[in-house]
Amino acid sequence: MNLQTALIMLHEKMATAVSSEIDVLREASRHILLAGGKRVRPRLLFLAYQAVGGDDLTSAVTPAAALEILHTATLAHDDINDHGVLRRDRPTINAIWGRTFALLTGDYLFAKVYEMLAPYGAGLNAALAEAVVQVVEGETLQAQAAKAGALDEPTYYRIIALKTAALFRAAARVGAQLGDGAPGQVELLGDYGFKIGLAFQIIDDILDLLADSAQLGKSAGLDMAQGKGIAVAVGGDGSVATMVAPAGVQVDERDPLLAFKQQVLQGDTVGRARRQARRLVEDAVAMLDALPLSEAVDALKALARSVVERDR
Amino acid sequence: MNLQTALIMLHEKMATAVSSEIDVLREASRHILLAGGKRVRPRLLFLAYQAVGGDDLTSAVTPAAALEILHTATLAHDDINDHGVLRRDRPTINAIWGRTFALLTGDYLFAKVYEMLAPYGAGLNAALAEAVVQVVEGETLQAQAAKAGALDEPTYYRIIALKTAALFRAAARVGAQLGDGAPGQVELLGDYGFKIGLAFQIIDDILDLLADSAQLGKSAGLDMAQGKGIAVAVGGDGSVATMVAPAGVQVDERDPLLAFKQQVLQGDTVGRARRQARRLVEDAVAMLDALPLSEAVDALKALARSVVERDR
What we know:
4 strands; 70% helix; two-stranded antiparallel sheet; globular
Protein backbone atom coordinates (compact mmCIF):
# COMPACT_ATOMS: atom_id res chain seq x y z
CA MET A 1 0.00 0.00 0.00
CA ASN A 2 1.32 3.43 -0.88
CA LEU A 3 1.04 6.68 1.05
CA GLN A 4 -1.97 7.96 -0.91
CA THR A 5 -3.93 4.81 -0.15
CA ALA A 6 -2.91 5.03 3.49
CA LEU A 7 -4.22 8.59 3.64
CA ILE A 8 -7.57 7.49 2.21
CA MET A 9 -7.74 4.73 4.82
CA LEU A 10 -6.85 7.30 7.45
CA HIS A 11 -9.84 9.38 6.39
CA GLU A 12 -12.15 6.37 6.65
CA LYS A 13 -10.71 5.31 9.99
CA MET A 14 -11.27 8.78 11.45
CA ALA A 15 -14.85 8.88 10.19
CA THR A 16 -15.73 5.51 11.69
CA ALA A 17 -13.83 6.13 14.94
CA VAL A 18 -16.18 8.95 15.87
CA SER A 19 -19.46 7.24 15.06
CA SER A 20 -21.07 8.13 18.38
CA GLU A 21 -24.79 7.57 18.77
CA ILE A 22 -24.95 11.11 20.10
CA ASP A 23 -25.62 13.17 16.98
CA VAL A 24 -23.79 16.34 17.95
CA LEU A 25 -20.59 14.51 18.90
CA ARG A 26 -20.57 12.51 15.67
CA GLU A 27 -21.43 15.47 13.46
CA ALA A 28 -19.16 18.02 15.08
CA SER A 29 -16.28 15.52 15.13
CA ARG A 30 -16.67 14.71 11.45
CA HIS A 31 -17.16 18.36 10.61
CA ILE A 32 -13.70 19.23 11.86
CA LEU A 33 -11.90 15.91 11.20
CA LEU A 34 -12.96 15.46 7.61
CA ALA A 35 -12.55 19.07 6.56
CA GLY A 36 -9.16 18.31 5.17
CA GLY A 37 -6.18 19.72 6.96
CA LYS A 38 -2.65 19.03 5.87
CA ARG A 39 -2.35 15.65 7.66
CA VAL A 40 1.30 16.45 8.35
CA ARG A 41 1.48 14.33 11.48
CA PRO A 42 -0.01 11.18 9.90
CA ARG A 43 2.24 11.61 6.85
CA LEU A 44 5.21 11.86 9.17
CA LEU A 45 4.14 8.72 11.00
CA PHE A 46 3.59 6.74 7.78
CA LEU A 47 6.89 7.81 6.23
CA ALA A 48 8.88 7.13 9.43
CA TYR A 49 7.29 3.68 9.46
CA GLN A 50 8.45 3.02 5.90
CA ALA A 51 11.86 4.65 6.41
CA VAL A 52 12.86 2.02 8.97
CA GLY A 53 11.68 -0.80 6.71
CA GLY A 54 8.06 -1.23 7.76
CA ASP A 55 6.25 -2.89 4.85
CA ASP A 56 2.57 -2.94 5.82
CA LEU A 57 1.21 0.58 6.10
CA THR A 58 -2.25 -0.72 7.02
CA SER A 59 -0.88 -1.56 10.46
CA ALA A 60 -0.05 2.12 10.97
CA VAL A 61 -3.42 3.55 9.96
CA THR A 62 -5.11 3.42 13.37
CA PRO A 63 -2.23 5.07 15.27
CA ALA A 64 -1.95 7.71 12.53
CA ALA A 65 -5.69 8.37 12.74
CA ALA A 66 -5.47 8.62 16.53
CA LEU A 67 -2.64 11.13 16.23
CA GLU A 68 -4.59 13.31 13.82
CA ILE A 69 -7.68 13.10 16.04
CA LEU A 70 -5.55 14.12 19.00
CA HIS A 71 -4.23 17.14 17.11
CA THR A 72 -7.78 17.98 16.08
CA ALA A 73 -9.00 17.79 19.68
CA THR A 74 -6.49 20.47 20.61
CA LEU A 75 -7.75 22.61 17.71
CA ALA A 76 -11.34 22.29 18.90
CA HIS A 77 -10.33 23.56 22.34
CA ASP A 78 -8.02 26.23 20.90
CA ASP A 79 -10.92 27.63 18.93
CA ILE A 80 -12.86 28.08 22.16
CA ASN A 81 -10.05 29.95 23.85
CA ASP A 82 -9.22 32.04 20.77
CA HIS A 83 -12.83 32.68 19.72
CA GLY A 84 -11.85 31.36 16.27
CA VAL A 85 -14.64 31.28 13.73
CA LEU A 86 -12.88 29.62 10.80
CA ARG A 87 -10.85 26.41 10.77
CA ARG A 88 -9.81 24.24 7.82
CA ASP A 89 -11.98 26.44 5.59
CA ARG A 90 -15.06 25.72 7.65
CA PRO A 91 -16.81 27.48 10.51
CA THR A 92 -15.43 26.25 13.86
CA ILE A 93 -17.42 23.88 16.06
CA ASN A 94 -17.62 26.77 18.45
CA ALA A 95 -19.22 28.96 15.78
CA ILE A 96 -21.81 26.36 14.76
CA TRP A 97 -22.65 24.42 17.90
CA GLY A 98 -21.53 26.82 20.61
CA ARG A 99 -18.92 26.63 23.34
CA THR A 100 -20.36 23.83 25.46
CA PHE A 101 -20.53 21.37 22.58
CA ALA A 102 -17.12 22.46 21.25
CA LEU A 103 -15.62 21.70 24.66
CA LEU A 104 -17.37 18.33 24.85
CA THR A 105 -16.42 17.43 21.27
CA GLY A 106 -12.77 18.10 22.13
CA ASP A 107 -13.10 15.88 25.19
CA TYR A 108 -14.80 13.22 23.09
CA LEU A 109 -11.95 13.28 20.58
CA PHE A 110 -9.37 12.95 23.39
CA ALA A 111 -11.31 10.00 24.79
CA LYS A 112 -11.44 8.35 21.37
CA VAL A 113 -7.67 8.66 21.00
CA TYR A 114 -7.25 6.91 24.33
CA GLU A 115 -9.65 4.18 23.24
CA MET A 116 -8.05 3.69 19.81
CA LEU A 117 -4.54 3.38 21.20
CA ALA A 118 -5.31 1.20 24.23
CA PRO A 119 -4.45 -2.01 22.31
CA TYR A 120 -1.02 -0.69 21.26
CA GLY A 121 0.81 -1.36 24.50
CA ALA A 122 2.72 0.58 27.09
CA GLY A 123 5.69 1.81 25.04
CA LEU A 124 3.73 3.56 22.34
CA ASN A 125 1.17 4.96 24.78
CA ALA A 126 3.73 6.27 27.27
CA ALA A 127 5.52 8.19 24.51
CA LEU A 128 2.33 9.64 23.17
CA ALA A 129 0.95 10.47 26.61
CA GLU A 130 4.08 12.46 27.39
CA ALA A 131 3.58 14.41 24.17
CA VAL A 132 -0.05 15.14 25.03
CA VAL A 133 0.98 16.53 28.41
CA GLN A 134 3.53 18.72 26.65
CA VAL A 135 1.03 20.02 24.11
CA VAL A 136 -1.26 21.16 26.92
CA GLU A 137 1.67 22.72 28.78
CA GLY A 138 2.69 24.61 25.64
CA GLU A 139 -0.84 25.90 25.09
CA THR A 140 -0.91 27.03 28.70
CA LEU A 141 2.39 28.90 28.47
CA GLN A 142 1.12 30.57 25.32
CA ALA A 143 -2.10 31.65 27.02
CA GLN A 144 -0.05 33.06 29.89
CA ALA A 145 2.21 34.99 27.52
CA ALA A 146 -0.81 36.35 25.67
CA LYS A 147 -2.37 37.43 28.95
CA ALA A 148 0.88 39.09 30.05
CA GLY A 149 1.23 40.75 26.64
CA ALA A 150 4.90 39.84 26.47
CA LEU A 151 7.05 36.98 25.30
CA ASP A 152 10.79 36.52 25.49
CA GLU A 153 12.92 34.31 23.33
CA PRO A 154 13.38 31.32 25.67
CA THR A 155 9.66 31.28 26.36
CA TYR A 156 8.80 31.39 22.66
CA TYR A 157 11.03 28.40 21.98
CA ARG A 158 9.69 26.55 24.98
CA ILE A 159 6.13 27.15 23.78
CA ILE A 160 6.64 25.92 20.23
CA ALA A 161 8.74 22.96 21.41
CA LEU A 162 5.94 21.88 23.74
CA LYS A 163 2.81 22.74 21.82
CA THR A 164 3.94 21.63 18.34
CA ALA A 165 7.32 19.96 18.09
CA ALA A 166 6.62 17.41 20.85
CA LEU A 167 3.76 15.91 18.85
CA PHE A 168 5.78 15.92 15.61
CA ARG A 169 8.51 14.04 17.46
CA ALA A 170 5.96 11.58 18.84
CA ALA A 171 4.49 11.02 15.37
CA ALA A 172 7.88 10.13 13.89
CA ARG A 173 8.84 7.99 16.88
CA VAL A 174 5.56 6.07 16.85
CA GLY A 175 5.93 5.40 13.11
CA ALA A 176 9.49 4.15 13.60
CA GLN A 177 8.46 2.00 16.57
CA LEU A 178 5.58 0.44 14.63
CA GLY A 179 7.95 -0.27 11.75
CA ASP A 180 10.30 -2.11 14.15
CA GLY A 181 13.06 0.45 13.75
CA ALA A 182 16.24 0.05 15.81
CA PRO A 183 16.31 2.25 18.93
CA GLY A 184 18.83 4.58 17.27
CA GLN A 185 16.56 5.00 14.26
CA VAL A 186 13.58 5.76 16.50
CA GLU A 187 15.62 8.46 18.26
CA LEU A 188 16.92 9.90 15.00
CA LEU A 189 13.49 10.12 13.43
CA GLY A 190 12.14 11.64 16.65
CA ASP A 191 14.79 14.35 16.51
CA TYR A 192 14.04 14.93 12.83
CA GLY A 193 10.34 15.29 13.69
CA PHE A 194 11.11 17.69 16.52
CA LYS A 195 13.12 19.99 14.24
CA ILE A 196 10.53 20.16 11.50
CA GLY A 197 7.90 20.69 14.18
CA LEU A 198 9.73 23.81 15.32
CA ALA A 199 10.06 25.00 11.71
CA PHE A 200 6.40 24.25 11.05
CA GLN A 201 5.30 26.40 13.98
CA ILE A 202 7.59 29.30 13.05
CA ILE A 203 6.10 29.30 9.55
CA ASP A 204 2.62 29.01 11.05
CA ASP A 205 3.25 32.09 13.17
CA ILE A 206 4.50 34.01 10.14
CA LEU A 207 1.47 32.96 8.08
CA ASP A 208 -0.82 33.94 10.91
CA LEU A 209 0.82 37.33 10.91
CA LEU A 210 0.72 37.91 7.18
CA ALA A 211 -2.06 35.91 5.64
CA ASP A 212 -5.67 36.78 5.38
CA SER A 213 -8.24 34.23 6.51
CA ALA A 214 -9.28 33.15 3.02
CA GLN A 215 -5.78 32.07 2.16
CA LEU A 216 -5.10 30.44 5.51
CA GLY A 217 -8.40 28.60 5.89
CA LYS A 218 -8.58 29.59 9.53
CA SER A 219 -9.09 32.81 11.43
CA ALA A 220 -5.93 34.82 10.82
CA GLY A 221 -4.12 37.10 13.20
CA LEU A 222 -6.21 36.03 16.14
CA ASP A 223 -3.54 36.57 18.73
CA MET A 224 -3.44 40.18 17.75
CA ALA A 225 -7.12 40.65 17.02
CA GLN A 226 -7.89 39.86 20.62
CA GLY A 227 -5.71 42.67 21.77
CA LYS A 228 -3.00 40.28 22.79
CA GLY A 229 -0.79 42.20 20.40
CA ILE A 230 1.91 39.59 20.17
CA ALA A 231 3.70 38.31 17.18
CA VAL A 232 6.96 36.54 17.06
CA ALA A 233 9.67 36.02 14.55
CA VAL A 234 12.85 34.10 14.99
CA GLY A 235 15.96 35.95 13.93
CA GLY A 236 18.65 34.54 11.67
CA ASP A 237 21.07 34.52 14.59
CA GLY A 238 18.68 32.39 16.58
CA SER A 239 17.31 35.37 18.44
CA VAL A 240 13.60 35.88 18.63
CA ALA A 241 12.06 39.23 17.92
CA THR A 242 9.00 39.75 20.02
CA MET A 243 6.69 42.17 18.34
CA VAL A 244 4.18 43.72 20.62
CA ALA A 245 1.76 46.13 19.00
CA PRO A 246 2.48 49.60 20.38
CA ALA A 247 -0.44 51.12 22.25
CA GLY A 248 -2.28 53.69 20.18
CA VAL A 249 -1.36 52.35 16.75
CA GLN A 250 -4.02 53.65 14.37
CA VAL A 251 -6.22 50.81 13.19
CA ASP A 252 -7.85 50.46 9.81
CA GLU A 253 -11.40 49.22 10.25
CA ARG A 254 -11.22 46.89 7.26
CA ASP A 255 -8.11 45.28 8.73
CA PRO A 256 -7.53 46.10 12.37
CA LEU A 257 -4.06 44.61 12.17
CA LEU A 258 -2.93 46.53 9.12
CA ALA A 259 -0.81 49.11 10.90
CA PHE A 260 0.79 46.47 13.05
CA LYS A 261 1.50 44.24 10.08
CA GLN A 262 3.01 47.10 8.13
CA GLN A 263 5.30 47.88 11.03
CA VAL A 264 6.54 44.30 11.18
CA LEU A 265 6.85 44.04 7.41
CA GLN A 266 9.06 47.12 7.16
CA GLY A 267 12.06 45.36 8.70
CA ASP A 268 13.57 42.02 7.83
CA THR A 269 11.94 40.30 10.80
CA VAL A 270 9.85 37.92 8.72
CA GLY A 271 12.70 37.17 6.35
CA ARG A 272 14.99 36.29 9.22
CA ALA A 273 12.38 34.02 10.78
CA ARG A 274 11.90 32.21 7.49
CA ARG A 275 15.65 31.66 7.18
CA GLN A 276 15.77 30.23 10.69
CA ALA A 277 12.96 27.81 9.86
CA ARG A 278 14.80 26.77 6.68
CA ARG A 279 17.93 26.10 8.70
CA LEU A 280 16.03 23.83 11.06
CA VAL A 281 14.62 21.97 8.09
CA GLU A 282 18.02 21.56 6.43
CA ASP A 283 19.41 20.21 9.71
CA ALA A 284 16.55 17.74 9.84
CA VAL A 285 17.07 16.70 6.21
CA ALA A 286 20.80 16.17 6.76
CA MET A 287 20.11 13.84 9.70
CA LEU A 288 18.17 11.51 7.42
CA ASP A 289 21.36 10.61 5.54
CA ALA A 290 22.13 8.22 8.40
CA LEU A 291 19.18 6.08 7.29
CA PRO A 292 19.31 3.58 4.39
CA LEU A 293 18.40 5.20 1.08
CA SER A 294 14.75 4.69 0.19
CA GLU A 295 11.76 6.36 -1.40
CA ALA A 296 10.39 6.96 2.08
CA VAL A 297 13.52 8.84 3.16
CA ASP A 298 13.29 10.98 0.01
CA ALA A 299 9.65 11.64 0.82
CA LEU A 300 10.59 12.65 4.38
CA LYS A 301 13.07 15.15 2.92
CA ALA A 302 10.39 16.54 0.63
CA LEU A 303 7.94 16.69 3.53
CA ALA A 304 10.45 18.67 5.60
CA ARG A 305 10.98 21.18 2.80
CA SER A 306 7.27 21.54 2.13
CA VAL A 307 6.86 22.64 5.74
CA VAL A 308 8.75 25.86 5.06
CA GLU A 309 7.58 26.40 1.51
CA ARG A 310 3.85 26.28 2.14
CA ASP A 311 1.67 29.38 2.03
CA ARG A 312 -1.08 27.97 4.25
CA MET B 1 -2.04 -1.77 54.05
CA ASN B 2 -5.57 -0.79 54.98
CA LEU B 3 -8.02 1.44 53.13
CA GLN B 4 -7.20 4.56 55.15
CA THR B 5 -3.50 4.25 54.35
CA ALA B 6 -4.34 3.65 50.70
CA LEU B 7 -6.40 6.83 50.65
CA ILE B 8 -3.48 8.80 52.09
CA MET B 9 -1.19 7.34 49.43
CA LEU B 10 -3.82 8.25 46.85
CA HIS B 11 -3.67 11.85 47.99
CA GLU B 12 0.12 11.89 47.68
CA LYS B 13 0.06 10.18 44.31
CA MET B 14 -2.38 12.74 42.94
CA ALA B 15 -0.28 15.63 44.25
CA THR B 16 2.93 14.35 42.67
CA ALA B 17 1.24 13.27 39.42
CA VAL B 18 0.38 16.87 38.58
CA SER B 19 3.75 18.45 39.40
CA SER B 20 3.97 20.34 36.12
CA GLU B 21 6.65 23.00 35.75
CA ILE B 22 3.89 25.27 34.51
CA ASP B 23 2.69 26.96 37.69
CA VAL B 24 -0.94 27.45 36.78
CA LEU B 25 -1.42 23.81 35.74
CA ARG B 26 0.20 22.51 38.92
CA GLU B 27 -1.61 24.93 41.21
CA ALA B 28 -5.04 24.70 39.60
CA SER B 29 -4.77 20.90 39.47
CA ARG B 30 -3.85 20.63 43.13
CA HIS B 31 -6.47 23.21 44.06
CA ILE B 32 -9.26 20.99 42.81
CA LEU B 33 -7.68 17.55 43.36
CA LEU B 34 -6.64 18.03 46.97
CA ALA B 35 -9.76 19.87 48.08
CA GLY B 36 -11.19 16.67 49.40
CA GLY B 37 -14.12 15.18 47.64
CA LYS B 38 -15.70 11.93 48.67
CA ARG B 39 -13.20 9.70 46.80
CA VAL B 40 -16.05 7.28 46.08
CA ARG B 41 -14.49 5.95 42.87
CA PRO B 42 -11.08 5.19 44.41
CA ARG B 43 -12.74 3.58 47.44
CA LEU B 44 -14.76 1.41 45.10
CA LEU B 45 -11.62 0.43 43.20
CA PHE B 46 -9.67 -0.41 46.38
CA LEU B 47 -12.50 -2.43 47.91
CA ALA B 48 -13.19 -4.34 44.69
CA TYR B 49 -9.48 -5.17 44.59
CA GLN B 50 -9.63 -6.58 48.12
CA ALA B 51 -12.98 -8.28 47.61
CA VAL B 52 -11.51 -10.63 44.97
CA GLY B 53 -8.53 -11.43 47.19
CA GLY B 54 -6.01 -8.75 46.19
CA ASP B 55 -3.58 -8.40 49.07
CA ASP B 56 -1.31 -5.47 48.13
CA LEU B 57 -3.32 -2.26 47.94
CA THR B 58 -0.18 -0.27 47.04
CA SER B 59 -0.39 -1.78 43.56
CA ALA B 60 -3.84 -0.23 43.12
CA VAL B 61 -2.92 3.30 44.21
CA THR B 62 -1.84 4.66 40.82
CA PRO B 63 -4.92 3.40 38.93
CA ALA B 64 -7.15 4.70 41.72
CA ALA B 65 -5.43 8.08 41.58
CA ALA B 66 -5.80 8.14 37.79
CA LEU B 67 -9.50 7.39 38.11
CA GLU B 68 -10.04 10.21 40.61
CA ILE B 69 -8.04 12.60 38.41
CA LEU B 70 -10.17 11.58 35.45
CA HIS B 71 -13.35 12.30 37.39
CA THR B 72 -11.88 15.62 38.50
CA ALA B 73 -11.03 16.56 34.89
CA THR B 74 -14.69 16.19 34.00
CA LEU B 75 -15.61 18.42 36.98
CA ALA B 76 -13.19 21.13 35.80
CA HIS B 77 -14.86 21.16 32.38
CA ASP B 78 -18.37 20.90 33.86
CA ASP B 79 -17.72 24.00 35.91
CA ILE B 80 -16.95 25.90 32.70
CA ASN B 81 -20.16 24.82 31.03
CA ASP B 82 -22.29 25.34 34.13
CA HIS B 83 -20.61 28.58 35.26
CA GLY B 84 -20.12 26.92 38.66
CA VAL B 85 -18.33 29.04 41.23
CA LEU B 86 -18.02 26.58 44.11
CA ARG B 87 -16.70 23.02 44.02
CA ARG B 88 -15.57 20.82 46.90
CA ASP B 89 -16.00 23.81 49.22
CA ARG B 90 -13.55 25.89 47.17
CA PRO B 91 -13.96 28.41 44.38
CA THR B 92 -13.86 26.64 41.00
CA ILE B 93 -10.77 26.85 38.76
CA ASN B 94 -12.99 28.82 36.44
CA ALA B 95 -13.74 31.35 39.18
CA ILE B 96 -10.09 31.82 40.17
CA TRP B 97 -8.06 31.39 37.00
CA GLY B 98 -10.70 32.02 34.32
CA ARG B 99 -12.15 29.89 31.57
CA THR B 100 -9.07 29.40 29.40
CA PHE B 101 -6.97 27.96 32.21
CA ALA B 102 -9.87 25.89 33.53
CA LEU B 103 -10.22 24.32 30.09
CA LEU B 104 -6.48 23.69 29.85
CA THR B 105 -6.29 22.29 33.38
CA GLY B 106 -9.04 19.82 32.51
CA ASP B 107 -7.09 18.81 29.39
CA TYR B 108 -3.93 18.50 31.44
CA LEU B 109 -5.65 16.21 33.93
CA PHE B 110 -6.98 14.03 31.07
CA ALA B 111 -3.47 13.83 29.63
CA LYS B 112 -2.03 12.85 33.01
CA VAL B 113 -4.56 10.03 33.35
CA TYR B 114 -3.46 8.72 29.97
CA GLU B 115 0.18 8.95 31.03
CA MET B 116 -0.35 7.30 34.42
CA LEU B 117 -2.24 4.35 32.99
CA ALA B 118 -0.07 3.71 29.92
CA PRO B 119 1.98 1.05 31.76
CA TYR B 120 -1.12 -0.90 32.80
CA GLY B 121 -1.75 -2.68 29.53
CA ALA B 122 -4.46 -2.99 26.96
CA GLY B 123 -7.20 -4.67 29.01
CA LEU B 124 -7.39 -2.10 31.75
CA ASN B 125 -6.99 0.84 29.38
CA ALA B 126 -9.60 -0.37 26.89
CA ALA B 127 -12.19 -0.70 29.67
CA LEU B 128 -11.41 2.70 31.09
CA ALA B 129 -11.27 4.37 27.67
CA GLU B 130 -14.75 3.09 26.92
CA ALA B 131 -15.97 4.59 30.19
CA VAL B 132 -14.37 7.96 29.39
CA VAL B 133 -16.14 8.06 26.02
CA GLN B 134 -19.41 7.29 27.80
CA VAL B 135 -18.91 10.01 30.41
CA VAL B 136 -18.48 12.59 27.64
CA GLU B 137 -21.50 11.23 25.79
CA GLY B 138 -23.59 11.48 28.96
CA GLU B 139 -22.49 15.07 29.58
CA THR B 140 -23.39 15.90 25.99
CA LEU B 141 -26.87 14.37 26.23
CA GLN B 142 -27.40 16.32 29.44
CA ALA B 143 -26.35 19.58 27.80
CA GLN B 144 -28.73 18.86 24.93
CA ALA B 145 -31.61 18.16 27.31
CA ALA B 146 -30.85 21.33 29.23
CA LYS B 147 -30.84 23.32 26.00
CA ALA B 148 -34.11 21.77 24.89
CA GLY B 149 -35.63 22.39 28.33
CA ALA B 150 -37.09 18.91 28.44
CA LEU B 151 -36.08 15.46 29.52
CA ASP B 152 -37.96 12.21 29.26
CA GLU B 153 -37.48 9.10 31.34
CA PRO B 154 -35.40 7.00 28.93
CA THR B 155 -33.12 9.97 28.29
CA TYR B 156 -32.66 10.63 31.99
CA TYR B 157 -31.62 7.03 32.60
CA ARG B 158 -29.38 7.06 29.56
CA ILE B 159 -27.68 10.23 30.82
CA ILE B 160 -26.97 9.00 34.34
CA ALA B 161 -25.88 5.58 33.07
CA LEU B 162 -23.35 7.21 30.75
CA LYS B 163 -22.13 10.18 32.73
CA THR B 164 -21.89 8.54 36.15
CA ALA B 165 -22.61 4.83 36.34
CA ALA B 166 -20.17 3.91 33.54
CA LEU B 167 -17.21 5.23 35.54
CA PHE B 168 -18.43 3.57 38.75
CA ARG B 169 -18.58 0.30 36.82
CA ALA B 170 -15.10 0.88 35.42
CA ALA B 171 -13.73 1.64 38.90
CA ALA B 172 -15.05 -1.62 40.30
CA ARG B 173 -13.94 -3.62 37.26
CA VAL B 174 -10.44 -2.17 37.29
CA GLY B 175 -10.08 -2.94 40.99
CA ALA B 176 -11.24 -6.52 40.44
CA GLN B 177 -8.92 -6.95 37.43
CA LEU B 178 -5.93 -5.63 39.37
CA GLY B 179 -6.76 -8.02 42.21
CA ASP B 180 -6.75 -10.94 39.74
CA GLY B 181 -10.44 -11.60 40.17
CA ALA B 182 -12.06 -14.33 38.06
CA PRO B 183 -13.90 -12.99 34.98
CA GLY B 184 -17.26 -13.64 36.66
CA GLN B 185 -16.18 -11.64 39.71
CA VAL B 186 -15.03 -8.76 37.52
CA GLU B 187 -18.43 -8.72 35.80
CA LEU B 188 -20.32 -8.97 39.08
CA LEU B 189 -18.41 -6.12 40.69
CA GLY B 190 -18.83 -4.06 37.52
CA ASP B 191 -22.61 -4.55 37.69
CA TYR B 192 -22.57 -3.68 41.39
CA GLY B 193 -20.64 -0.49 40.57
CA PHE B 194 -23.05 0.40 37.80
CA LYS B 195 -26.07 0.13 40.10
CA ILE B 196 -24.61 2.22 42.88
CA GLY B 197 -23.48 4.73 40.24
CA LEU B 198 -27.09 5.16 39.15
CA ALA B 199 -28.20 5.52 42.78
CA PHE B 200 -25.39 7.98 43.47
CA GLN B 201 -26.49 10.22 40.61
CA ILE B 202 -30.16 10.13 41.56
CA ILE B 203 -29.24 11.23 45.09
CA ASP B 204 -26.91 13.87 43.64
CA ASP B 205 -29.78 15.28 41.58
CA ILE B 206 -32.03 15.35 44.62
CA LEU B 207 -29.35 17.09 46.70
CA ASP B 208 -28.78 19.58 43.92
CA LEU B 209 -32.48 20.32 43.98
CA LEU B 210 -32.84 20.66 47.72
CA ALA B 211 -29.55 21.63 49.26
CA ASP B 212 -28.04 25.03 49.58
CA SER B 213 -24.48 25.58 48.44
CA ALA B 214 -22.96 25.65 51.92
CA GLN B 215 -24.22 22.19 52.70
CA LEU B 216 -23.36 20.75 49.31
CA GLY B 217 -19.89 22.27 48.92
CA LYS B 218 -20.63 23.12 45.31
CA SER B 219 -22.91 25.51 43.50
CA ALA B 220 -26.41 24.20 44.12
CA GLY B 221 -29.36 24.18 41.79
CA LEU B 222 -27.27 25.27 38.84
CA ASP B 223 -29.35 23.50 36.26
CA MET B 224 -32.28 25.57 37.30
CA ALA B 225 -30.46 28.79 38.07
CA GLN B 226 -29.40 29.00 34.46
CA GLY B 227 -32.99 28.97 33.36
CA LYS B 228 -32.71 25.41 32.24
CA GLY B 229 -35.54 24.75 34.66
CA ILE B 230 -35.09 21.03 34.77
CA ALA B 231 -35.10 18.74 37.71
CA VAL B 232 -35.65 15.08 37.71
CA ALA B 233 -36.82 12.53 40.15
CA VAL B 234 -37.22 8.84 39.63
CA GLY B 235 -40.57 7.43 40.63
CA GLY B 236 -41.03 4.40 42.85
CA ASP B 237 -42.50 2.48 39.93
CA GLY B 238 -39.39 3.19 37.90
CA SER B 239 -40.98 6.13 36.14
CA VAL B 240 -39.15 9.40 36.03
CA ALA B 241 -40.88 12.62 36.87
CA THR B 242 -39.46 15.44 34.84
CA MET B 243 -39.98 18.68 36.61
CA VAL B 244 -39.74 21.68 34.39
CA ALA B 245 -40.22 25.01 36.06
CA PRO B 246 -43.45 26.53 34.74
CA ALA B 247 -42.95 29.80 32.90
CA GLY B 248 -43.89 32.77 35.03
CA VAL B 249 -43.32 31.20 38.42
CA GLN B 250 -42.75 34.06 40.86
CA VAL B 251 -39.15 34.11 41.98
CA ASP B 252 -37.85 35.15 45.37
CA GLU B 253 -34.75 37.28 44.94
CA ARG B 254 -32.93 35.70 47.86
CA ASP B 255 -33.51 32.27 46.37
CA PRO B 256 -34.56 32.32 42.72
CA LEU B 257 -35.40 28.66 42.90
CA LEU B 258 -37.60 28.84 45.96
CA ALA B 259 -40.95 28.72 44.19
CA PHE B 260 -39.80 25.90 41.99
CA LYS B 261 -38.40 23.93 44.89
CA GLN B 262 -41.60 24.39 46.87
CA GLN B 263 -43.62 23.08 43.99
CA VAL B 264 -41.49 19.96 43.73
CA LEU B 265 -41.45 19.46 47.48
CA GLN B 266 -45.24 19.54 47.77
CA GLY B 267 -45.66 16.15 46.14
CA ASP B 268 -43.92 12.88 46.96
CA THR B 269 -41.55 13.22 43.99
CA VAL B 270 -38.40 13.39 46.04
CA GLY B 271 -39.49 10.62 48.36
CA ARG B 272 -40.18 8.33 45.44
CA ALA B 273 -36.81 9.09 43.88
CA ARG B 274 -35.03 8.31 47.12
CA ARG B 275 -36.85 4.98 47.37
CA GLN B 276 -35.82 4.11 43.84
CA ALA B 277 -32.18 4.85 44.65
CA ARG B 278 -32.42 2.71 47.77
CA ARG B 279 -33.81 -0.16 45.72
CA LEU B 280 -30.85 0.05 43.34
CA VAL B 281 -28.48 -0.02 46.28
CA GLU B 282 -30.21 -3.01 47.88
CA ASP B 283 -30.01 -4.88 44.56
CA ALA B 284 -26.30 -4.07 44.42
CA VAL B 285 -25.74 -5.19 48.00
CA ALA B 286 -27.57 -8.46 47.40
CA MET B 287 -25.33 -9.24 44.41
CA LEU B 288 -22.29 -9.17 46.66
CA ASP B 289 -23.47 -12.30 48.49
CA ALA B 290 -22.05 -14.28 45.56
CA LEU B 291 -18.54 -13.25 46.66
CA PRO B 292 -16.61 -14.92 49.51
CA LEU B 293 -17.33 -13.28 52.87
CA SER B 294 -14.69 -10.71 53.79
CA GLU B 295 -14.22 -7.37 55.45
CA ALA B 296 -13.90 -5.81 51.99
CA VAL B 297 -17.30 -7.16 50.93
CA ASP B 298 -18.83 -5.78 54.13
CA ALA B 299 -17.18 -2.45 53.39
CA LEU B 300 -18.58 -2.50 49.82
CA LYS B 301 -22.05 -3.01 51.30
CA ALA B 302 -21.53 -0.10 53.67
CA LEU B 303 -20.21 2.03 50.80
CA ALA B 304 -23.31 1.27 48.75
CA ARG B 305 -25.61 2.28 51.57
CA SER B 306 -23.66 5.43 52.31
CA VAL B 307 -24.35 6.52 48.73
CA VAL B 308 -28.06 6.94 49.47
CA GLU B 309 -27.74 8.09 53.06
CA ARG B 310 -25.41 11.03 52.47
CA ASP B 311 -26.58 14.63 52.67
CA ARG B 312 -23.80 16.05 50.46
